[in-house]
Specification:
The structure holds 2 protein chains of 2 kinds. By secondary structure, chain A is an alpha+beta fold. Chain A is built from 14 helices and 19 strands. Chain B is built from 19 helices and 14 strands. Classes of the chains: A alpha+beta, B alpha+beta.
Chain lengths: ~450, ~575
């Protein structure tokens, strides 16, 4: 029987295999249970694919953006607020992947690994308190006026997003028949601030400038000559017209392609790539309090000299998610440190609100200061500051050519260099024409409203 | 005068009204009991598993083998390998003795010795023996010149050392966990569950549920009293089975008729368990019956193939008048029985041909019925039993190769088989078609959390085959993951128990039967639990003792009898 006792290992092999299976079960549960539990067929939370049991989503002032009343999901009372924040709350069908009702449905439904879907009868899900201001978002939606685009306004001290609006959108309370007008609703489920990437255009000159300030000694004292055309061996860089002799600051204000292409060529692809990556282009895995954010891209692989020059002015293959710009200008405003963006109140408080992790250093402090000066000059010498005179508006426009005979994307990116209103912003209007006229106007209107918030 | 059914209905209405009148009290009961059940499950499992895992299984010797230098070695098994190898039960340290020289076996009518083809030969009383020779206690055995005398157990012998220290303490502590107290724990658990179920049901309350459930609990008590009367003390495997049955009854309770059927099946299963335990106690009797079992199995499967009905894609049902049975569930028991017994005088012959043929017929028949889950289960049982008997690792490889070839052949001849398993590992991509059952099981397993959402309230119940194939998910949803895992781990504990008990087994017959049965239960559990959660393909087998289904329940109790046969703790004196 000793012999047979030895042979009994085969039974133990079966036991071991079974234990591996149990391990796989527990591993799968630990990893995927929130996803399993919140699949829209779960009758604890959904009925006919529609969320029926979930907590309330509030804006920063405690206004209910979405709540469950009598087993029905009810959105904000104002149709424009509903449209403005559809990408944040989500739609009844759960189509917006980056919305709270999808990306945070495990929290919102109140599911937990210990108690599962159980709640004492009458209790609902967990509430979410967001950082956005419903009125400001509504104003942003109205300012975009139906044009596709995105608006983001963030407090660059705390990282709290006050405004996050994407267009086109629709009313989640009464979803229209999207198929009836596919052109108007193209990409309607995408939150353009987080999930779509665009050619950045001249806004990228802020990155090229940062690299030049760090790596090319005496660049601040140099002058750049522009006759409207820079001819290279393998192509050419053009400006709308000849800018003549300019300093770096004037070249920035003029948004001179020739000058910045020259700088890009002097920097070379290694250093330009390095600064683009530091600025966050092509970063992967960023999340906004758990909401996944897409990555843009920056590559100079197989680039010719002309490509390198165009990359220096934000054309070539570079793509940016609007949130990337918001974070980059937050670093310029914050003496070189980018903040971590937040959409949920309290998420950035750190350990009991006593300690917050300092933001990642993106720029040297003096580089950030010089860039601030250049952006301030842009406003003073070119864009104008309207009602924001007391708040030191610093900004950069972008007009990104998209080809195909379409009007360029209009960008306006910047911040208020002010302790009372530490706000940074990004405005994008797709095919909106010139950044200086379209996007800048929207930004100034919204900032005038935002500075009145507490 | 009112008839009994009318009175029954009247009471039921009264209780319903009372429960509804209590309002939110049912919610409160759920709120409290969902903490109670997992804790109680942990306590119960501790009380059942500790004694199972911690030794205390030191059989008394049948006789003593005295060597020339006066050493007295105990013969504790019915078959004792004698030789110079360290795997022998009686080790003779002499270079002339072969590694496995001979086998001394005890049968009903006396002692036998079988030479295992040794170089030095074996003699009884000076006469060289060929094959198996009977001898009397006191006769002189000569193994390649080494003399050995088998003596009755009197006086002193080399007792195995008493265990000390931590393991000795653990064994003592395990012995102090009285099964009677464990049964009281179990009854408390089940009564509380019954109350929670009733309060949760409210207006949907059915008086049949408590009536049927109390019948089941009475059965548990009767069984306990019966074992006490027979002087058997350790009944942990049965208590585990009762625990699982008790959980399963609440899954069946949604339909009072099927609940009554299930209680009946448990009663029949328990009866089979008792009969088989009694039957197995006498090896010679059991051995004689093997042809009956083997023949009966083949006949039942053949009948199934000819007259069977197809349900849920497999032709594995047989209607006998008002009852329909799944023959493969019952054949499992006969398979183990025949497999363990078909080796004539165990350890002494290595002829596997008969068992190979028998296994081939069984697995082949199941394949033809498209009951692939059962085919895999039988195959696992075959592998283990064949290996325990032959010790030949090549056999395992050949077996696996044949199985792989068979599976490949089946899939290439019948492509719809592959289609049935297309969703495997990718259920979410087919969430509302072929992966429907798996994804629903995952959804509601996760919805249950660790503590469950309350008995009888689950949503998974409404999915097809929830009470059989997806029962793990139903338990996880309503009782929580802790209790559901306990249901899955109970067969693992039994298999571990069987494997570690082999050394102390009286006879190789019990060792093979117990290991075969335990692996069959374990494989079935794996296919059910992992299949429903998309870790393995969903094959539609039952979860032992928990799933709703009469044939399965009876079959599981039969297999438990085979596992129990290796449990030497309850046997006293000569079996």
């Amino acid at each position: 029987m000793k012999l047979m006792g030895r042979r009994a290992w085969i039974v133990l092999v079966f036991c071991a295999l079974f234990s591996v299976g149990i391990g796989a079960l527990l591993g799968g549960y630990a990893k995927d249970a929130p996803r399993w539990a919140t699949y829209p067929a779960n009758r604890y939370f959904y009925s006919g694919g529609r969320l029926i049991r979930a907590g309330t989503i509030y804006d920063r002032n405690g206004a209910a953006l979405a709540e469950t009343v009598d087993g029905q999901r009810r959105y904000h009372e104002s149709a424009d607020v509903r449209r403005a924040l559809m990408h944040l709350t989500g739609d009844p069908g759960g189509n917006v992947a980056s919305s709270l009702q999808v990306a945070m449905r495990d929290k919102l439904t109140g599911w937990s690994a210990v108690t599962g879907a159980y709640t004492f009868p009458g209790a609902g899900g967990q509430d979410l308190h967001t950082t956005v201001d419903a009125a400001l978002c509504r104003a942003a939606y109205e300012a975009l006026d139906g044009r596709p685009g995105a608006v983001g306004i963030m407090n660059y001290r705390t990282g709290e997003l006050l405004c996050m609006v994407s267009s086109p959108t629709f009313d989640p309370q009464k979803p229209p028949d999207l198929a009836a007008d596919p052109e108007a609703y193209e990409g309607v489920y995408l939150n353009r601030l987080l999930s779509a990437s665009f050619a950045p255009g001249s806004v990228f000159k802020l990155v090229t400038a940062a690299a030049a300030l760090d790596c090319l000694p005496g660049v601040g004292e140099r002058t750049f000559s522009c006759d409207g055309l820079l001819t290279l061996e393998d192509g050419r860089i053009t400006c709308p017209h000849a800018h003549g002799e300019q300093t770096l600051g004037q070249a920035m204000t003029n948004s001179c392609n020739v000058a910045f292409a020259q700088l890009a060529l002097e920097l070379g692809e290694t250093r330009l790539t390095q600064y683009a990556q530091k600025a966050g282009f092509g970063r992967r895995g960023l999340t906004l309090d758990g909401i996944p954010v897409s990555g843009g891209s920056f590559t100079l692989a197989d680039a010719t000299q002309a490509d390198l020059g165009w990359a220096g002015v934000g054309q070539y293959k570079t793509l940016a998610v609007p949130l990337d710009y918001l974070l980059y200008v937050s670093a310029i405003a914050n003496d070189g440190r980018a903040v971590t963006p937040h959409i949920l109140r309290g998420a950035g408080d750190g350990l009991f609100g006593l300690w917050t992790r300092p933001g990642e250093r993106v720029l040297a402090a003096d580089t950030a200061e010089t860039l601030t000066g250049l952006m301030r000059d842009n406003v003073l010498n070119n864009y104008g500051e309207g009602k924001l005179a007391a708040y030191r508006l610093c900004a950069k426009t972008g007009t990104a050519e998209v080809g195909g005979g379409k009007a360029p994307h209009a960008w306006f990116v910047g911040f208020l260099d002010s302790a009372e209103a530490p706000l940074c912003f990004v405005v994008l209007v797709e095919n909106g024409g010139s950044g200086g006229s379209v996007a800048a106007g929207i930004a100034k209107t919204l900032l005038a409203q935002a500075i009145k918030l507490d | 005068m009112q008839g009994l059914p009318a009175m029954f209905a009247q009471w039921e209405t009264a209780v319903q009204a009372w429960l509804v009148g209590l309002g939110g009290f049912g919610d409160l009961v759920t709120f409290v009991t969902r903490f109670f059940f997992p804790l109680m499950t942990l306590a119960l499992f501790l009380r059942c598993l500790w004694p199972l895992m911690s030794g205390g299984r030191r059989p008394k010797p049948w006789a003593l083998a005295e060597t020339p230098d006066g050493t007295r070695l105990p013969l504790v098994h019915w078959e004792n390998a004698v030789g110079s190898g360290k795997n022998c039960d009686v080790t003779l340290d002499d270079p002339a003795v072969s590694r496995t020289h001979a086998v001394i076996s005890r049968r009903r009518d006396g002692w036998y010795v079988t030479d295992m083809g040794s170089a030095g030969g074996t003699a009884v009383g000076g006469t060289p023996c060929a094959g198996t020779v009977r001898f009397e206690e006191g006769d002189l055995l000569t193994l390649a010149g080494v003399e050995l005398t088998v003596l009755p157990v009197e006086g002193d012998y080399d007792r195995p050392r008493q265990r000390r220290g931590l393991s000795g303490w653990a064994a003592d502590a395990a012995r102090s966990l009285k099964p009677g107290v464990t049964l009281l724990y179990l009854l408390l658990f089940q009564l509380t569950a019954l109350a929670a179920f009733a309060f949760g049901a409210g207006a949907g309350f059915s008086l049949t549920v408590p009536v049927a459930y109390l019948m089941f609990m009475a059965l548990e008590c009767l069984y306990f009293l019966f074992t006490r009367g027979r002087g058997r003390r350790r009944i942990e495997p049965e208590l585990l089975a009762f625990f699982l049955c008790g959980i399963g009854l609440f899954v069946a309770a949604a339909d009072p008729d099927s609940l009554l059927k299930q209680v009946g099946a448990i009663a029949i299963g328990l009866l089979l368990f008792l009969v088989l335990t009694f039957f197995l106690n006498n090896i010679d009797r059991a051995r004689l019956a093997r042809y009956v079992f083997a023949g009966g199995s083949v006949a039942l499967l053949a009948l199934n193939l000819l007259l069977g009905e197809t349900r849920f894609g497999a032709r594995n049902w047989l209607s006998l008048g008002p009852v329909s049975i799944q023959p493969s569930e019952l054949v499992k028991v006969a398979f183990v029985f025949a497999g363990a017994a078909s080796l004539e005088y165990l350890l002494t012959r290595r002829n596997l041909i008969m068992f190979l043929g028998f296994s081939g017929v069984c697995v082949g028949a199941l394949g033809l019925m498209r009951d692939f889950g059962a085919a895999v289960i039988f195959f696992a049982g075959f592998l283990v039993m064949a290996f325990l008997r032959s010790g030949d690792a090549r056999l395992l490889l050949v077996g696996l190769a044949v199985a792989a070839a068979g599976a490949f052949l089946a899939i290439s001849i019948m492509p719809y088989i592959a289609a049935r398993f297309a969703a495997w590992g990718n259920a979410w991509a087919f969430a509302d078609t072929t992966g429907y059952q798996q994804t629903r099981t995952m959804i509601y397993t996760a919805s249950g959390g660790l503590l469950g959402t309350g008995l009888g309230h689950g949503f998974l119940r409404h999915v097809a085959a929830a009470d059989t194939d997806l029962v793990f998910g139903v338990v996880a949803e309503e009782w929580g993951l802790i209790v559901a895992l306990a249901c899955a781990l109970a067969p693992l504990a039994l298999a571990f128990f069987a494997a570690t008990s082999v050394r102390a087994a009286r006879s190789a017959f019990y060792a093979i039967a117990a290991c075969g049965a335990a692996v069959i239960l374990l494989t079935q559990t794996a296919l059910n639990v992992f299949g429903s959660l998309d870790i393995l393909p969903l094959t539609g087998v039952t979860l032992p003792f928990v799933s709703n289904g009469g044939s399965s329940m009876v079959g599981c109790w039969g297999l438990l009898a085979c596992i129990k046969s290796i449990d030497e703790r309850h046997r006293s004196g000569r079996g």
